[in-house]
Structure formats: structure tokens, C-alpha cells
Specification:
Layout: E1 3-7, H1 11-22, E2 27-31, H2 34-43, E3 48-52, H3 60-67, E4 75-81, H4 85-93, E5 98-102, H5 106-140, H6 146-158, E6 165-168, H7 175-184, E7 193-197, H8 203-211, E8 212-213, E9 225-226, H9 228-231, E10 236-240, H10 247-259, E11 261-262, E12 271-272, E13 276-281, H11 285-290, H12 296-302, E14 305-308, H13 316-329, E15 333-334, H14 336-344, H15 350-364, E16 369-370, H16 377-380, H17 396-414, H18 419-426, H19 430-439
Parallel strand pairs: 1-2, 1-3, 3-4, 4-5, 6-13, 6-14, 7-10, 10-13, 15-16
Antiparallel strand pairs: 8-9, 11-12
Helix pairs in contact: 2-3, 5-7, 13-14, 17-18, 18-19
Amino acid sequence: MAKILIVDDELNIRQMLKSILEKHNYIIDVAEDGKIALEKIKNDFYDIVLCDIKMPEMDGFEFLKALKEIETNPTVIMMTAFGSIETAIEAIRAGAYDYISKPFKPDEVIIAIKKAEERERLIKENALLKRETNEKILKEIVCESHAMKEILKAIEKIAPYKQPVLITGESGVGKEVVARLIHEKSPRYKKPFVAINCAAIPETLLESELFGHAKGAFTDASKPKRGLLEYADGGTCFLDEISEMQENLQSKLLRFLEDGEVRRIGDIHPIKVDVRIISATNKNLQTLIEEGKFRLDLYYRLNVIPIHLPPLRERKEDIYFFIKKEIQKRHIEITDEALNILLNYHWPGNFRELKNFFERLFIFLDKPIIETSDIPEYMIDIDTSEIKPDAKFISLKRAIVDLEKDYIKRALILTNGNRLKAAKLLEISPRSLHYKLKEYNIE
């Protein structure tokens, strides 16, 4: 049950409330004024505080103000004399959750406490969801490489601020994941994170999606509509593929960044909103500026804090970590040859391609080991166009296979056919040796 602190300068009120609440199995503590209550809250945990408004030493309003300076944040229900509704409303504006009027009936007290308990439950659920969201986002970011560790450090530094962020990098490197992480680690995490792909929405609709429209602004505008920038008020708006935004809309976005005001299509009245803009692109915006396709002034507004995500081919530590995590999760193995092929493949689709590859692989894999035969030819094929027809040459893949077969046979000869000893000599697991014997048809 909830732990409740009763704060009132009248002894009979404290005793009465204590008696009522203890009958419902609540854990009760009492304090005769706001100062004593604050000391108790600093040294103990309370779910709910029942506090009188009029008290000597420190009244309820001073108590609420001082409570904001303490890390703990119990739900506060104010108690006020009958007829002082205006005072009670003022207390709610100051940070109280609810109020009850004196003299009160036991049922009224219990109902107020039950409502406060429900609020506490929702707060705890939201906190849990927040932690799970952070963990989920972090799981999507592989940060074993030095470059990604530096980016994580940068995110910690920039998250608390409002300045726009421009994330650059190839398609599939995880730009939206980084944007979400910035939002989740910022003070804005309780507010919306709105993502919009500028390349996926036609120009005529994109303006309405971002800024909204007034009733009658165009033929199908039968009612007013809030834009995504309005919806994201207090939170973050992620503009993916910002390079695809048309010039007339670029100028409207620039104006929004300068004055923080949204003007719906067909409306002359501006709406003030507080939104952090994070944009992303896989193109070189400076090249587009030189070609006259992107505004220089908008670029400077968006590129206040730049983050560049390097391609996966430059982050072999991240590829290795991801592969190891995937195979350990499924309790399988991978041969050194297969691992080297995956580490050295250039992954043009970056993490999106890497994840899709393993999802597809595990659907069709019918053995507990990944071998070169499980990897598509396009990942391991070499360009032989310049090799002369009469050249005596075999592929590296075939050479490795022949060498591996020879080593396995020699190991079995040296160990008199003892497979356990042969596996140890080859420095592979007995299970791997078993599958290799089967694959190479070695008796």
C-alpha cells in the first residue's frame, strides 16, 4: 500500500486522518508543519502527501514551492477550509494534484487517495516505459567502434538543448534512431517525437502536414487541421530527407526556425510553438546549395549541431559485435571464413541491409552453424574479367575449401581418427568439425 504523509498543524485532524487511512491499510506518517514535512521527505519516501494550506511557520503554498527543489516528487493533495475553492485552485496551479475541503467525510478522503494512487501508478508505468524505450533505442545502436562511442558522448552533451541538429550519413546508418535517442535523453522526452519523411510526401501535401491548414484553405479543407509542428509542441520534430524539400517550403521552414511561429495554410494568425528540429539527409547539402537546390540560410539554421554517422564498412567493430550478438542469441556458430566474408563485405545498405540479411538467413538456416555456403554469391564473388583464359587460377573460396579439407584430413590422421582430439588440434568445436566432415563428405 501507499505510504502517506499527513501535514497539518491541528493534532485532532492529524489523528483523525491517520485513523481513517490506517483502517484501509495505508502506511501513515505525520508532520505538524511544512518545515518538518520537508525534512521527512528529504530522508524518506512518500507516495502521497496530504497537506493543509493554512499553517504557521510554512503554509501550503510555501511547502509546494520548496517541494519543487527536492528530487523526490510525491503526489500532493491540499486540504482547505470549506468555501475556499479559489485558494484550492490556486494550489493546483502551484503544483498540487487535488484538494479536499474541510470538514470532510471519510469516504471523500479515501476517494481522493485512490485517485492519487492511480496517478502514482501511471507515473511509475510511464517511467518504466521510458526506461524500456531508452533500452530499445540503445539496442538498435551498435556502438563498439570508436566513432560511434564518440557520437554517443556527443548525444549526451547536446540532448538538453533546443538548438537544431543536422544528422548526415548514408541510407540505413540509423539517422532516425539517433534522432529518437536525442529526444529521449532530452527534457522533452515526455512530449511528442514526430517523424516525417520529406521525400515520401508530395510537395502539395507536405506543407499541410507540417503547418496545418484553416477551414476552406483549399477545396478539400472542410475543417481546420493542426500541422505536425503544432502537434509536436514541447517536443521534437524529425525531418528526414530534408534535401528533398522544395524551395518554397524551405523558406517557410526557415521563417518558422527564426520566429517559432506556425502559420496554417489559409490563416493569417500565427501560433507560437516550442519545437526542436532535428533534420537528416543522405545527400551533400553543400553540393545542392551550389546547384541552387537548397537554401544556404536554411542550411546554416539547420546545421547548428552537426552529427555525421559513418557508413558500416568503416565500422568493422560494430559489424563484428552485431554478428556475435545475433549468433549467441540463437545459440549457433559461424566459421572463420564466413565471418571474414561478412566483415569485409562493403554493406551498401548499412545496418538496414545487415539486419535484413540475418533475418533472412535465420529463416532458411537448418543447421547450428553459418558457413560460406550460406552467404550469397554477390557478397563473396570477385571480378575475374581481367583474368586471362589460359591463366591457371582457382577462386580464393575454392582454395580455402581445398586447404580446409586437407587440414581436416591431416588432423584425423595425426589423431588416429579421434574426432575430439582432431577438433582440439584444429581449434574448432567438435560440433563444427562434425558439420565440416559432413559438408566435405570426409569419412
